[in-house]
């Protein structure tokens, strides 16, 4: 996680990254607005997409070596009645540490999702070749980390995709999206291994509230991703277009196809209808999937794979602090958070009548027994505040330093209730409740909005003042002018 610490370099790099992958980001914005958005970038967890941009920025000053007579990539998906041909080799630039055997391994690749590209489509073939080189050379160390981490979730995600009748190769999409990092958080505020933005996540049944963010759950988010990808494939009839829409949004891809009168993804590479990030997205997926299926053929050896994601489950009917859960299960709070990455606070959600909790394997029985010995008042911690006369939620929030939204969530209030003197309300326990990255992004966005409104108001008042002053001067000038005219006529 890269948190903003006031360093100029981080801000400048964030600004550079945004302007490269999203030209529209900078267009029409003044320097202060762009830097303000760049600050948002600095507090986000780096995703593979942002890391790829960083690598491209770092290498943009050096002209890459282009091997002579590199053969184009042959057709990856046989057309009706055509005989499939063997794909060609993708050569590694000279001077890099790749053996001849590893270079030749590219020629044996099998296309994921039957995605096809014409052997004469130079742009498409070059894009795929760049992606292979990027992962096997420029980002090889980082890609090794993603491969190691993927082992934790591959099996459970594959099982979900099978149940949904979806191609298993889609399981490698989180490599491109997040590097299989459940904590991944992008500048666009997409979260979790599948990088859902809030709107799409809620549309596919994921809960996002003050207590939990199901986008970060590897099981629930995979179910939602499978449903979303199925809908996209049904909509576009092509996996390359479905993947592009997953990255850019179905509306943007549909508009790009309509404007270019096209029906395939590769024809969009030479247009300005989609961003460079989306143009690279499908080639990155192709390369990542092929490499992940046979990593040793591409030089990824001696990988230390993570243990599979396994757990016990118990159902809680009352909210319980994570510290209490960890103690009863004989583990750490960090382990409980790792197994339940959707949890955002110090406890399980108190706004649910029951909650299914994951525990380390073979700890459920001991947990249930230990939990039964803990008094009810010790299970869920909070502080009690007594409302004083004429106090409002806003005043209490200001006095306690706790945001109004937090008080509303903790007390299951809608915000329209009137508080009475002597009423008891709950506040987060000191030292246990902390703002997560989404809280910080929300607060920053609200702060920027208030700042813009304030600047706009000040500018408006200034214009009115100037206009009033100028108007008075104009009246005097016109009066004098009329006076002169009358004098001349006399």
Could you please describe the fold and organization of this structure?
- This protein has about 500 residues and is mainly α.
- Among the domains are: about 65-80 and about 90-300, Lysozyme (Orthogonal Bundle), CATH 1.10.530; about 310-380, no CATH class; about 385-425, Roll (Membrane-bound Lytic Murein Transglycosylase D, Chain A), CATH 3.10.350.10.
- The chain is built from 20 helices and 4 strands.
- The N and C termini lie far apart (about 85 Å).
- Mean pLDDT is about 80; it is low at about 1-15, about 20-25, about 35-45, about 55-105 and about 470-490.
Q: How would you briefly describe this protein structure?
A:
This protein has 490 residues and is mainly alpha-helical. Helices cover 50% and strands 4% of the residues.
On the 0-100 scale, what is the average pLDDT? 80
| Number of helical stretches of at least 4 residues | 20
CATH topology of the domain at 65-79 and 91-298: Lysozyme
Write down the CATH class of the domain at 65-79 and 91-298.
Mainly Alpha
Order of helices and strands: HHHHHHHHHHHHHHEHHEHEHHEH
Kindly provide the radius of gyration, computed on alpha-carbon positions and rounded to a whole number of angstroms: 29 Å
Structural class: mainly alpha
Q: Strands of the biggest beta sheet: in what spatial order?
A: 1-2
Number of strands: 4
From the spread of the alpha carbons, the general shape counts as globular
**Helix coverage percent:** 40-55%
End-to-end separation:
83 Å
Outline the biggest β-sheet.
2 strands, antiparallel
| Relative strand content | under 5%
CATH architecture of the domain at 65-79 and 91-298: Orthogonal Bundle
Poorly predicted regions are 1-13, 20-25, 34-44, 57-107, 471-490
